[in-house]
Amino acid sequence: MTANARAVAPRTPHARRISVFWQGVACVLTGAGVLVGLSIVFNPGLLRPLQLSVDRYLFLVLGIFLALVFLLFPGRARDLRRVPWYDAALAGLALAIGLYLVWNARQINAGGWALARAPDFVVAVGVGLWLLVLEAARRTTGNVFAGIILVVSLYPSYAGAMPGPLRGFDIPFVDTVRFHAFSGQSITGDPLRVLGTILMGFLVFGVVLQHTGGGQFFADLAGALLGPVRGGTAKVAIVASGAFGMLSGSGVSNVLSTGTVTIPAMKQSGFTPAFAAGVEANAANGGTLVPPVMGATAFLMATILEEPYSVVALAAVVPALLFYYSLFVQLDAYAARYGIRGVERAAIPALRQTLRTGWPYLLTLGLLVSAVLQLRADADAAFVCAGVLLVAGTLGGRIRWSLRSAVELVIRSGRVLAELTSQLAAVGMLIGSLYLTGSVASFTSGIIHFGGTDVVTLLALAAVVSLILGTGLPDTAAYIFLAVMLAPALVAQGFDPVAVHFFILYWSNIADVTPPVAIAVTAAAGIAQAPAMASMWEATRLAAVKYLLPFYFVLNPVLLFRGFEPVAFAQTLVPAVIGITVAAYALQGYLPGVGVVTASRAGLAVRAAMTVGALLLAVPAPALQAGGWLVMAVGYGLLWVAGRRGWRMLVAVNRTASHLVQPQDGA
Questions:
Q1: Which residues of the chain have pLDDT under 70?
Q2: What do you get for the CA distance between the two ends of the chain, in Å?
């Protein structure tokens, strides 16, 4: 493995360092899981002698990767450097339960163990699986997530005592656990099925891309293209972190990986620590919304919507571009305001050399995008592209194979697959509980009754609920829960289903950069050695457009290529781009042709008015849109005149504030 590849490898703070023996065990388990996945994807006939149906396959995948969780993720901090006997026992128990369920899968279905009475030993197996999934979720995702899963997974047991739309059918504890373990609609439901049949290939591809130095290539490419421009280090961070986040599927993991490089570079070039943390958090977290990969959530969205993944990937393009464009404009304004220059050309990689050595990454990504969007060969293409990268990396000398390098690749793949398996199995219990109690329909009708027929009220309510759940749950878990509970209420009001699901996805994602939790910002602030709250407010300001985008595209689904018409698309996109441009410059206090807008009361008032005017362009009301155009024009005209006449209460005379004040967090 190259040194450059290691520089951008993900750092998982709670991942265990294991001995050579346990590394071997982990490699065997990972290899078995991936090989079975390959057989399912490419030729299910290979598994017919084993009579390995999809149900049996999912039980096997679950047992293998739950066992890996207990080997690779410690239950306590003091076990970071060893595998204690009880973790080995839990791993063995998880694998044994998985194999038991594989062996008895036909009897589970024929005997109706999920709903009818089952033997006592079978019930004990079900309880054991339920507990193992909860503990695995706690180890990989945290106590809060595991606590929420525990409460909701037991919801059928007390649903009859809940008020209003939360009321459901009361189901005994034993029956609830049997349903979770054996039904195929809970632990081994759609989330785990998507992982086993589609997502596994993309996760392996992402790990292979990192292992072969793909992360460093994208960082070098961004540096070669954007390093010399104004505020170049921050713009490089946006591209590199966004590309890496697209492949890793985790904003926090991305921050911990690329942030250790991008944040110090931004600080050194003149950005404040809090601002640098806000930039990295937004760029990294937004990567999970960028096609073609987008992490696990997009594949689950396609499954829930019963649409090809290409529809979801295509719909994600314009919103992602608009969000990253808003980041670029704000960074440009900030750099112009404080005179932050680009990186010297001698200090950045040469574009020609970067492309000469990194063309396999662009080729494989191009093949992957083509296969997903045109051939609709999702899982097949991901595995094939991973193989192409390994071959190209070996022949091109980017991978120096050794036993250690091979083990590192396999264990890293196992860690990623095990972590997501535990999360998706736990999320499956959320869905199972809601369907088992029949509370989905009543909750949907309750939302509609509370929100009424007013579009703004209903969307605002949906945004608040999504934001709250996104604060306590990982993006994938929050999205799935809301896709089941909340999306039907919005679709029932006539909104486009794809737009509704993207609305929920964006608001669940926003929670990671929104105070008071803002987990992605907290991670970035730690790297930047900046105050957490100051970093959160910088991140919130940088993400301002992201708060508006979901409302804009759910009211204008043509931006998601839904009911696409070129004229309507242009009429919707152009005002969005202009509004984003004006709002981004106004938020940072710098306007092209004017210069620095002061932070005086008058200056802040004009900046606020122009921001509001820009936001009005998104409102589907011609009168308000006209008002927005007028406010922006008057505001810009006033500032232009102020600059020409030297009105210092509004505009800095020399058009740059670098000689007046150093960058301040929150300025």
A1: 1-15, 43-52, 164-165, 245, 247-251, 373-379, 397-398, 440-453, 472, 653-667
A2: 43
* CA-closest candidate to residue 351, choices 501, 236, 478: 236
Cβ burial 453-488 (10 Å sphere, 16+ → b, else e): eebeebbebbbebbbebbbebbbbbbbbbbbbbbbb
CA dist 7 and 415 (Å) reads 18
Give SS3 for 385.
Answer: helix
User: 80: which 2 tokens?
Assistant: 């970071």
Tokens for 499, please give them.
Answer: 């737009």
Nearest alpha-carbon partner for 66 in 26, 124, 106: 26
Judged by DSSP in three states, 516 sits in coil
pLDDT score, position 144: 86
- What tokens appear for 90 in the block? 């839990």
Residue 407 burial (10 A CB sphere; 0-12, 13-18, 19+): middle
Of residues 84, 66, 71, the one with CA closest to residue 134:
66
* Alpha-carbon gap, residue 80 to 543, rounded angstroms: 36
Q: Domain ranges in the chain?
A: 578-667
Rounded distance, CA 657 to CA 651, Å?
Answer: 10
Q: What is the pLDDT of residue 471?
A: 75
Q: What's residue 278's pLDDT?
A: 93
CB 545 within 8 A of CB 553: no
Specify the residue for token string 């951008």. 8
Q: Which two tokens stand for residue 581?
A: 């441009």
Q: What pLDDT, on a 0 to 100 scale, did the predictor assign at position 661?
A: 42
Q: List C-alpha distances in Å: 384 to 54, 247, 388, 390, 558.
A: 22, 16, 6, 10, 33
Pairing type for strands 590-591 and 595-596 reads: antiparallel
Amino acid identity, residue 106? R
- Residue 628: predicted pLDDT: 92
pLDDT at 8: 36
Secondary structure of the chain: what % helix, strand, coil (to 5)? 75, 0, 25
Cβ within 8 Å of residue 549, ≥6 positions away = 319, 322, 323, 506
| pLDDT at site 184 | 85
- pLDDT attached to residue 376: 60
Residue 185's nearest CA partner among 132, 114, 103, 106 is 114
| pLDDT score for 63 | 96
Structural contact between residues 663 and 338, judged by C-beta atoms closer than 8 angstroms: yes
DSSP-derived 3-state class of residue 596: strand
Q: Which residues pair with 591 in a beta bridge?
A: 595
